[in-house]
Structures are given as C-alpha cells and as structure tokens.
Amino acid sequence: MSAATTQRPQRADQAARADRAKRAGQTERTGQTERTDQAKLARAARIRTNAANLGLAAEPRMGRTAVTFLVMAVALIVMIVVSASLGQLVIPFDQVIGSGLNRIGIHWLDGPSRAFGNEALWNVRFPRIAMAVVVGAALGVAGAVMQGVFGNPLAEPGTVGVSSGAAVGASCSILMGWTFLGSFTTPFLAFICGLGTTVAVYLLARRGGRTEIVTLILTGVAVNAIAGALIAFFTFAAPTSARDQIVFWQMGSFNGSRWQQVALVAPMCVIGMIVVQTLARRLDLLSLGERPARHLGVNVERLRFVAMLAVALLVSSAVAFAGIISFVGLVVPHLLRMILGPGHRTLLPASALGGALLLTIADFAARTTIAFADLPIGMLTSLVGGPFFFWLLRRSRSKSGGWA
Higher-confidence residue: 195 or 50? Predict the structure, then answer.
C-alpha cells in the first residue's frame, strides 16, 4: 500500500476530530453566552425586585405617617402662637389668635388690648416667625436631598460650599460698604455667591462628563477651606463696626425680619421644594446605587446636577437674610428618616415641616432665654443639635448597626 493511500485515512480522522472540536467549542461558547444572558437577566430581575422592595419600604404605614405629620403640624401651630404671644410685650394667646382671625374677616375673638399690640405682632413678631418657618423648611428639605444624593447621613447643604460661599459674598459686601441695592445688597450678594460656589464645586469635580461622590466631597472641602480663608481675611481687614457685622451675620439671626424679606425668600424656597419633590422617585432609585439606578433609566448626572442646583437655591435664599444656621439640614432629615423610612416622597415634606418646627422653637428660645437679649440662632442650633445628633447616632447604631 502506498504512503498516499495510508495518509488519506489519517487526514480524514484529523478533519473529523477538528470538526468535532469546532462543534464542541461552538457549543461551549453558546453555553457561555446563554449563561451570561441568564446572569444579566437574573441581575436585572434582582435590580427590579430591589426597586420594588424599596418602593414598599419607602412608604411606611399610613397610620405612622399621618400621626407624624399631624403631631408636627399641631406643634408648629402651637409654637407660632406661643412665640407670637411671649416676649418683652406679653400678649395673651386668645388675643394673638383673635388678631389673626380679624385679619381674615373673622371676628370671633378680640385682638390685642394693649397699646401697640397689633403693631408688635404684625410688624415685628409675625414676620420673624414667618421667616423662621420658611428658612427652617428650606434647610430641612435641602438636608434630606443632600443625604439622598450623596448616600451619606453626614451630608448636609454645607458639603458643597453653599453656606461658606454665601458668607463670602455677605462679608465682602459688608467690608466694602456696598449699597447699590440698599438694604438688600448684602443678602443679594450672599445669594449669588452661594449659588455660584455650588456650581463651581460641581464643575470642578466633573471630569469626562461624570462626577463622583468622593470627588464632589473633596472638592467641597477644598472650596470651603478657600472660602473660610477669604472670610478670615475680610474679617481681619474690616474696621471694628464692619467686623462685628460679619461675625454676627455668620452666627445667624432672624432679628429685624420684615414682610418684604419674607416675600423675596418664600417664592424661591417654594420653587426649590417643588423641584426636589419631582425628583423623589429618582432619589429613591439612586439609593440602590448608581449602576442599578442607571439600569432603571435614571440619568444620574442630570439628577445630581438638578438636585445640587435646587439645594443651592434653597440654602442661598435661606441664608441670605438669616445668616448661617447649622445642624437643621443634618439632624431633621436623619431623625425623620428613622421614623418614616427612606422614601423621599414622604421624607421631603416631612423634613420641611420638621425644619420649620425646629427653627420656630429655636427662634423663640433665642428671643426669650435671656431678658433684653437676642441670642444668635445658629449658636443655639449647634449647641442643641450637636449632642442631640450624637445621641441619634448612638441610638441608631445600637438598634440597626447604623444609618439605613
């Protein structure tokens, strides 16, 4: 038998083995592809399940929600009446209520019987209380949004530099003695610088069309440090009278609030709260993580930018007239998250109500704790908020291992 005849069966066997190996490779690749597709489908199903579970967990029992809102609303109304009644000029509670009813044409109760009682209520106390309610609501909502965007219980509006930026604008205005808008010059510059600082932090942290949480936080720390240095320089360079104004502005106060100021601040705060309320569902999905949120159709970058811009609008307008007030945006959302759960559709309005209640109480304490003195409200919120927040952390950790 010739060599060529012997080699033909060998080549046929080799071809058959190669064909079998090829079919086996194709089968293995097909199996891997099927397993990969199954893994993707399983992952997508888990994401949808987690989102559904989050939606269920986000909505607490209606009884608890209703009771929480009712208690805070009643407490806020009571504190408004008490705050309007007590002070250097004491006006009985029924006369405070009567004055309010008389303004809307209901004459069931008599108004203040003492001279200048109505003037004290409507020109001094009620504008101040209204400013406390608006600013507290804005700071509470801003804190809840920041904690949702950053996924961190320690996040607050000051994280992105809005408060320090507003302080730079106010300090510069006081130092230079600018009055091109009259008494509104300092608040206007505080508002503009607060907004600008937040936008600057976002743009500096953005790279390749994306931002990361850690980069945003570190950029905010750097910008806050620069703003602190500028404030220190303005304070050092200012004459004594201007230096006192800078220091007291940073401590925060509602003293001297007027209806014109409330009319400027309230619409901007309402707009900011409406904007963040429309983001509630996407903030819930973001709490699953960035990748799952993107898989569920959330544009994370757009959400983060719009949320930060809304927070800047809320906080800048709040601190423009009131100065820097700490801990409201940190303590209030954290406490209400423990009571109501993480769902932002409930948490955001609850934070607005809780912030308004807290600042109304704090402003009343600032007016009445020391006779003939008006304590800085930012100092009070920090003194009370610091230990209280420490207690919340200890309680949360002992019960559930931390913030959730």
Answer: 195
